[in-house]
Amino acid sequence: MSTQALLKQLYDTPEEDILKNIQQLKSELGEQVLILGHHYQREEVFAFADISGDSLKLSQQAADADAPNIIFCGVHFMAETADILTDDNQSVFLPDLAAGCSMADMANDAQVSKCWQELSSIINPDTCVTPVTYINSTAALKAFCGEHGGIVCTSSNAQKVLEWSWNNREKILFFPDQHLGENTALAMGIAEKDMIIWDPFQPLGGNTPEAIEHATLILWKGFCSVHQLFKAEHAATMRENHPDIQILAHPECAREVCETADFIGSTEAIIKHVQAAEKDSKFAIATELNLVNRLRIQYPDKPIWFLSPMVCMCSTMFRTDPQHLYATLLAIRDGKKDNQIIVPKHQKRWAKLSLERMLNLV
Ligand code: 13P
Ligand code: SF4
Predict the structure, then answer these.
(1) 230, 266, 312, 315: which to mutate for ligand 1, most atoms within 8 A of CB?
(2) C or N: which end of the chain has fewer Cβ atoms within 10 Å?
(3) Which domains does the chain have, with CATH numbers?
(4) What is the pTM of this model?
(5) H or E segment at 25?
Protein backbone atom coordinates (compact mmCIF):
# COMPACT_ATOMS: atom_id res chain seq x y z
CA MET A 1 0.00 0.00 0.00
CA SER A 2 1.30 3.49 -0.79
CA THR A 3 1.92 5.95 2.07
CA GLN A 4 -0.92 8.12 0.77
CA ALA A 5 -3.38 5.20 0.79
CA LEU A 6 -2.22 4.17 4.27
CA LEU A 7 -2.67 7.70 5.61
CA LYS A 8 -6.15 7.87 4.11
CA GLN A 9 -7.02 4.67 5.92
CA LEU A 10 -5.55 6.00 9.17
CA TYR A 11 -7.59 9.21 8.93
CA ASP A 12 -10.72 7.03 8.69
CA THR A 13 -9.72 5.22 11.92
CA PRO A 14 -10.82 6.70 15.28
CA GLU A 15 -7.91 8.67 16.76
CA GLU A 16 -8.08 6.81 20.09
CA ASP A 17 -7.34 3.58 18.21
CA ILE A 18 -4.38 5.19 16.48
CA LEU A 19 -3.00 6.33 19.84
CA LYS A 20 -3.34 2.81 21.28
CA ASN A 21 -1.68 1.33 18.18
CA ILE A 22 1.24 3.77 18.44
CA GLN A 23 1.77 2.80 22.06
CA GLN A 24 1.68 -0.91 21.26
CA LEU A 25 3.95 -0.76 18.22
CA LYS A 26 6.39 1.52 20.04
CA SER A 27 6.66 -1.06 22.85
CA GLU A 28 7.11 -3.88 20.32
CA LEU A 29 9.91 -2.03 18.55
CA GLY A 30 11.57 -1.24 21.90
CA GLU A 31 15.16 -0.04 21.55
CA GLN A 32 14.94 -0.25 17.76
CA VAL A 33 13.35 3.21 17.74
CA LEU A 34 14.03 6.48 19.55
CA ILE A 35 11.43 9.26 19.27
CA LEU A 36 12.71 12.82 19.68
CA GLY A 37 10.07 15.53 20.17
CA HIS A 38 10.47 19.30 19.98
CA HIS A 39 8.60 21.39 22.56
CA TYR A 40 6.35 22.85 19.83
CA GLN A 41 4.80 19.49 18.96
CA ARG A 42 1.11 19.03 19.54
CA GLU A 43 0.24 17.15 22.73
CA GLU A 44 -0.99 13.90 21.10
CA VAL A 45 2.43 13.46 19.46
CA PHE A 46 4.59 14.99 22.20
CA ALA A 47 3.28 12.36 24.63
CA PHE A 48 5.18 9.65 22.69
CA ALA A 49 8.57 11.38 22.73
CA ASP A 50 11.30 9.43 24.53
CA ILE A 51 13.24 12.67 24.79
CA SER A 52 11.89 16.20 24.42
CA GLY A 53 13.91 19.36 24.17
CA ASP A 54 14.95 22.50 22.34
CA SER A 55 17.08 22.41 19.19
CA LEU A 56 20.36 22.23 21.11
CA LYS A 57 19.31 19.45 23.49
CA LEU A 58 17.78 17.39 20.69
CA SER A 59 20.87 17.69 18.51
CA GLN A 60 23.06 16.59 21.47
CA GLN A 61 20.70 13.67 22.14
CA ALA A 62 20.75 12.64 18.48
CA ALA A 63 24.56 12.72 18.50
CA ASP A 64 24.61 10.42 21.58
CA ALA A 65 21.82 8.07 20.45
CA ASP A 66 22.47 4.36 19.85
CA ALA A 67 19.07 3.43 18.38
CA PRO A 68 19.22 2.29 14.75
CA ASN A 69 16.05 4.30 13.94
CA ILE A 70 15.33 7.84 15.10
CA ILE A 71 11.95 9.43 14.47
CA PHE A 72 12.23 13.20 14.66
CA CYS A 73 8.95 14.84 15.65
CA GLY A 74 9.99 18.34 14.73
CA VAL A 75 10.82 20.02 11.42
CA HIS A 76 13.05 19.21 8.46
CA PHE A 77 16.23 21.02 9.55
CA MET A 78 16.12 19.17 12.88
CA ALA A 79 15.95 15.76 11.17
CA GLU A 80 18.78 16.80 8.83
CA THR A 81 20.88 17.81 11.84
CA ALA A 82 20.20 14.43 13.46
CA ASP A 83 21.22 12.63 10.26
CA ILE A 84 24.47 14.61 10.11
CA LEU A 85 25.33 13.82 13.73
CA THR A 86 24.41 10.12 13.77
CA ASP A 87 26.40 7.18 12.40
CA ASP A 88 25.94 5.83 8.88
CA ASN A 89 24.16 2.74 10.20
CA GLN A 90 21.45 4.82 11.88
CA SER A 91 18.39 6.12 10.00
CA VAL A 92 16.50 9.34 10.76
CA PHE A 93 12.83 9.71 9.81
CA LEU A 94 10.60 12.79 9.57
CA PRO A 95 6.96 11.65 9.85
CA ASP A 96 5.69 14.34 7.43
CA LEU A 97 8.17 15.46 4.79
CA ALA A 98 6.26 18.73 4.39
CA ALA A 99 7.19 19.76 7.95
CA GLY A 100 9.63 22.52 7.00
CA CYS A 101 10.56 25.84 8.61
CA SER A 102 9.65 29.09 6.85
CA MET A 103 12.65 30.83 8.41
CA ALA A 104 15.06 28.18 7.13
CA ASP A 105 13.62 28.78 3.64
CA MET A 106 14.62 32.46 3.81
CA ALA A 107 18.29 31.77 3.00
CA ASN A 108 19.48 29.27 0.45
CA ASP A 109 22.92 28.17 -0.67
CA ALA A 110 22.85 30.23 -3.89
CA GLN A 111 21.88 33.41 -2.03
CA VAL A 112 24.52 32.99 0.67
CA SER A 113 27.22 32.14 -1.90
CA LYS A 114 26.23 35.25 -3.89
CA CYS A 115 26.43 37.34 -0.70
CA TRP A 116 29.95 35.95 -0.02
CA GLN A 117 30.96 36.81 -3.57
CA GLU A 118 29.58 40.34 -3.28
CA LEU A 119 31.40 40.80 0.02
CA SER A 120 34.58 39.70 -1.78
CA SER A 121 34.38 42.77 -3.99
CA ILE A 122 34.90 44.95 -0.89
CA ILE A 123 36.68 42.86 1.78
CA ASN A 124 38.28 39.42 1.95
CA PRO A 125 35.55 37.40 3.70
CA ASP A 126 37.73 34.29 3.97
CA THR A 127 40.06 36.09 6.34
CA CYS A 128 37.77 38.61 8.03
CA VAL A 129 34.21 37.18 8.18
CA THR A 130 32.97 34.20 10.22
CA PRO A 131 29.75 32.83 8.71
CA VAL A 132 27.33 31.79 11.47
CA THR A 133 24.17 29.91 10.67
CA TYR A 134 21.29 29.50 13.08
CA ILE A 135 20.51 25.78 13.34
CA ASN A 136 17.17 26.65 11.66
CA SER A 137 18.78 26.35 8.22
CA THR A 138 19.40 23.78 5.52
CA ALA A 139 22.28 21.27 5.67
CA ALA A 140 23.75 23.09 2.65
CA LEU A 141 24.19 26.26 4.71
CA LYS A 142 25.68 24.36 7.63
CA ALA A 143 28.12 22.89 5.09
CA PHE A 144 28.86 26.40 3.77
CA CYS A 145 29.80 27.45 7.31
CA GLY A 146 31.94 24.36 7.85
CA GLU A 147 33.85 24.99 4.65
CA HIS A 148 34.38 28.71 5.32
CA GLY A 149 35.63 28.56 8.92
CA GLY A 150 32.16 29.13 10.34
CA ILE A 151 29.86 27.58 12.88
CA VAL A 152 26.23 26.79 13.79
CA CYS A 153 24.34 28.28 16.75
CA THR A 154 21.02 27.69 18.47
CA SER A 155 18.95 30.07 20.53
CA SER A 156 20.58 28.63 23.69
CA ASN A 157 24.19 29.25 22.78
CA ALA A 158 24.15 32.21 20.37
CA GLN A 159 26.22 34.44 22.69
CA LYS A 160 29.01 31.86 23.12
CA VAL A 161 29.04 31.26 19.37
CA LEU A 162 29.26 34.99 18.58
CA GLU A 163 32.13 35.36 21.07
CA TRP A 164 33.98 32.44 19.41
CA SER A 165 33.33 33.91 15.97
CA TRP A 166 34.60 37.41 16.80
CA ASN A 167 37.64 35.89 18.46
CA ASN A 168 38.48 34.26 15.12
CA ARG A 169 37.64 37.01 12.65
CA GLU A 170 36.63 40.67 12.98
CA LYS A 171 33.19 40.38 11.28
CA ILE A 172 30.25 37.97 11.41
CA LEU A 173 27.75 37.16 8.69
CA PHE A 174 24.71 35.82 10.59
CA PHE A 175 21.85 34.00 8.81
CA PRO A 176 18.97 33.38 8.38
CA ASP A 177 17.41 35.02 11.49
CA GLN A 178 18.02 38.75 11.82
CA HIS A 179 16.36 38.87 15.26
CA LEU A 180 18.35 36.17 17.05
CA GLY A 181 21.57 37.80 15.80
CA GLU A 182 20.45 41.31 16.69
CA ASN A 183 19.01 40.48 20.14
CA THR A 184 22.11 38.49 21.09
CA ALA A 185 24.52 41.19 19.93
CA LEU A 186 22.59 43.94 21.75
CA ALA A 187 22.69 41.88 24.95
CA MET A 188 26.47 41.63 24.49
CA GLY A 189 26.74 45.42 24.27
CA ILE A 190 27.38 45.63 20.52
CA ALA A 191 26.36 49.07 19.24
CA GLU A 192 23.58 49.40 16.69
CA LYS A 193 25.89 51.40 14.41
CA ASP A 194 28.11 48.33 14.05
CA MET A 195 25.31 46.17 12.59
CA ILE A 196 23.88 46.18 9.09
CA ILE A 197 21.00 44.25 7.53
CA TRP A 198 21.66 42.15 4.41
CA ASP A 199 18.66 41.98 2.10
CA PRO A 200 19.38 39.11 -0.33
CA PHE A 201 17.18 40.73 -2.99
CA GLN A 202 19.25 43.97 -3.18
CA PRO A 203 22.71 44.55 -4.67
CA LEU A 204 25.25 44.46 -1.80
CA GLY A 205 22.33 43.49 0.42
CA GLY A 206 21.11 47.09 0.21
CA ASN A 207 24.32 48.51 1.76
CA THR A 208 27.07 50.87 0.70
CA PRO A 209 30.67 49.58 0.48
CA GLU A 210 31.58 51.90 3.39
CA ALA A 211 28.81 50.45 5.59
CA ILE A 212 30.08 46.92 4.84
CA GLU A 213 33.66 47.91 5.65
CA HIS A 214 32.58 49.42 8.95
CA ALA A 215 30.11 46.73 10.13
CA THR A 216 31.14 44.01 12.55
CA LEU A 217 27.81 42.18 12.31
CA ILE A 218 25.97 41.55 9.04
CA LEU A 219 22.44 40.32 9.76
CA TRP A 220 20.50 38.40 7.12
CA LYS A 221 16.99 39.79 6.63
CA GLY A 222 15.10 36.66 7.73
CA PHE A 223 12.55 36.02 10.45
CA CYS A 224 10.22 33.49 11.99
CA SER A 225 6.66 33.90 10.76
CA VAL A 226 5.34 32.75 14.14
CA HIS A 227 7.47 34.93 16.44
CA GLN A 228 7.04 38.06 14.32
CA LEU A 229 3.38 38.10 15.42
CA PHE A 230 4.31 39.18 18.95
CA LYS A 231 4.36 42.98 19.31
CA ALA A 232 5.61 45.44 21.92
CA GLU A 233 2.01 46.74 22.30
CA HIS A 234 0.95 43.28 23.49
CA ALA A 235 3.54 43.48 26.25
CA ALA A 236 2.38 47.00 27.21
CA THR A 237 -1.27 45.86 27.47
CA MET A 238 -0.26 42.85 29.53
CA ARG A 239 1.72 45.02 31.99
CA GLU A 240 -1.18 47.47 32.29
CA ASN A 241 -3.59 44.65 33.15
CA HIS A 242 -1.18 42.71 35.38
CA PRO A 243 1.51 45.01 36.86
CA ASP A 244 3.35 42.09 38.53
CA ILE A 245 3.59 39.95 35.37
CA GLN A 246 6.91 38.63 34.02
CA ILE A 247 7.27 38.66 30.24
CA LEU A 248 9.26 35.76 28.79
CA ALA A 249 10.28 35.93 25.12
CA HIS A 250 12.03 33.67 22.65
CA PRO A 251 14.97 35.51 20.98
CA GLU A 252 13.37 35.03 17.55
CA CYS A 253 10.93 37.79 18.59
CA ALA A 254 11.63 41.28 17.28
CA ARG A 255 13.99 43.55 19.21
CA GLU A 256 11.12 45.76 20.51
CA VAL A 257 9.47 42.72 22.11
CA CYS A 258 12.72 41.41 23.60
CA GLU A 259 13.47 44.88 24.99
CA THR A 260 10.25 44.73 27.03
CA ALA A 261 10.92 41.20 28.29
CA ASP A 262 12.03 40.22 31.79
CA PHE A 263 13.64 37.06 30.44
CA ILE A 264 14.78 35.98 26.97
CA GLY A 265 15.58 32.35 26.27
CA SER A 266 15.21 29.24 24.15
CA THR A 267 12.19 26.99 24.57
CA GLU A 268 14.07 24.85 27.11
CA ALA A 269 15.23 27.94 29.03
CA ILE A 270 11.67 29.33 29.15
CA ILE A 271 10.41 26.01 30.55
CA LYS A 272 13.14 25.95 33.22
CA HIS A 273 12.37 29.56 34.16
CA VAL A 274 8.69 28.80 34.75
CA GLN A 275 9.57 25.56 36.57
CA ALA A 276 11.89 27.38 38.99
CA ALA A 277 9.48 30.24 39.74
CA GLU A 278 7.52 30.50 42.99
CA LYS A 279 3.83 29.61 43.21
CA ASP A 280 1.51 32.43 42.03
CA SER A 281 4.20 33.94 39.75
CA LYS A 282 2.46 35.38 36.68
CA PHE A 283 3.85 35.03 33.18
CA ALA A 284 3.05 36.23 29.68
CA ILE A 285 5.00 34.15 27.17
CA ALA A 286 6.03 35.06 23.63
CA THR A 287 6.66 31.76 21.91
CA GLU A 288 4.72 29.04 20.09
CA LEU A 289 1.21 28.24 21.36
CA ASN A 290 1.52 24.47 21.93
CA LEU A 291 4.39 25.00 24.36
CA VAL A 292 2.58 27.80 26.22
CA ASN A 293 -0.59 25.70 26.54
CA ARG A 294 1.45 22.77 27.91
CA LEU A 295 3.04 25.03 30.54
CA ARG A 296 -0.42 26.28 31.57
CA ILE A 297 -1.54 22.70 32.20
CA GLN A 298 1.67 21.68 33.98
CA TYR A 299 1.74 24.71 36.29
CA PRO A 300 -1.87 25.58 37.21
CA ASP A 301 -0.56 27.42 40.32
CA LYS A 302 1.39 29.88 38.11
CA PRO A 303 -1.03 31.91 35.95
CA ILE A 304 0.24 31.99 32.36
CA TRP A 305 -0.96 34.14 29.46
CA PHE A 306 -0.07 33.91 25.80
CA LEU A 307 1.48 37.28 24.94
CA SER A 308 -0.32 37.83 21.64
CA PRO A 309 -4.10 38.07 21.20
CA MET A 310 -3.56 36.18 17.92
CA VAL A 311 -2.96 32.46 17.50
CA CYS A 312 0.78 32.08 16.91
CA MET A 313 1.24 28.45 16.06
CA CYS A 314 3.95 26.82 14.00
CA SER A 315 1.84 25.25 11.27
CA THR A 316 4.69 23.09 10.01
CA MET A 317 5.43 21.63 13.45
CA PHE A 318 1.69 20.93 13.62
CA ARG A 319 1.86 18.77 10.48
CA THR A 320 3.22 15.87 12.54
CA ASP A 321 0.06 14.20 13.76
CA PRO A 322 -0.55 10.74 15.30
CA GLN A 323 -1.44 9.32 11.86
CA HIS A 324 1.94 10.30 10.37
CA LEU A 325 3.77 9.06 13.46
CA TYR A 326 2.00 5.70 13.27
CA ALA A 327 2.67 5.38 9.52
CA THR A 328 6.38 5.96 10.22
CA LEU A 329 6.44 3.30 12.95
CA LEU A 330 4.72 0.85 10.59
CA ALA A 331 7.29 1.57 7.87
CA ILE A 332 10.16 0.93 10.31
CA ARG A 333 8.54 -2.32 11.48
CA ASP A 334 8.29 -3.42 7.83
CA GLY A 335 11.90 -2.47 7.08
CA LYS A 336 10.89 0.33 4.70
CA LYS A 337 12.77 3.61 4.43
CA ASP A 338 9.77 5.88 3.76
CA ASN A 339 10.40 9.46 4.93
CA GLN A 340 14.06 8.84 5.73
CA ILE A 341 16.09 12.06 5.73
CA ILE A 342 19.46 11.61 4.05
CA VAL A 343 21.91 14.50 3.83
CA PRO A 344 24.19 14.05 0.79
CA LYS A 345 27.73 12.91 1.69
CA HIS A 346 29.48 15.99 0.28
CA GLN A 347 27.36 18.26 2.53
CA LYS A 348 27.53 15.98 5.54
CA ARG A 349 31.28 16.27 6.01
CA TRP A 350 31.34 20.08 6.18
CA ALA A 351 28.00 20.44 7.96
CA LYS A 352 29.23 18.06 10.66
CA LEU A 353 32.32 20.20 11.16
CA SER A 354 30.27 23.36 11.74
CA LEU A 355 27.95 21.52 14.14
CA GLU A 356 30.86 19.97 16.03
CA ARG A 357 32.49 23.39 16.43
CA MET A 358 29.27 24.44 18.16
CA LEU A 359 28.89 21.28 20.26
CA ASN A 360 32.48 21.64 21.48
CA LEU A 361 31.64 25.11 22.86
CA VAL A 362 28.67 24.04 25.02
P1 13P B 1 14.57 26.34 20.31
O2 13P B 1 15.96 26.02 19.95
O3 13P B 1 14.44 27.37 21.38
O4 13P B 1 13.80 25.10 20.64
O5 13P B 1 13.86 27.01 19.07
C6 13P B 1 13.56 26.32 17.92
C7 13P B 1 12.65 27.06 17.07
O8 13P B 1 12.45 26.75 15.93
C9 13P B 1 12.02 28.22 17.62
O10 13P B 1 11.16 28.77 16.68
FE1 SF4 C 1 10.67 27.70 11.99
FE2 SF4 C 1 9.39 29.61 13.35
FE3 SF4 C 1 8.35 27.15 13.20
FE4 SF4 C 1 10.54 27.63 14.68
S5 SF4 C 1 8.48 28.42 15.01
S6 SF4 C 1 10.25 25.93 13.27
S7 SF4 C 1 11.57 29.18 13.39
S8 SF4 C 1 8.68 28.58 11.47
Answers:
(1) 266
(2) N
(3) 3-100+316-348 (3.40.50.10800), 104-224 (3.40.50.10800), 227-306 (3.40.50.10800)
(4) 0.96
(5) helix 15-29
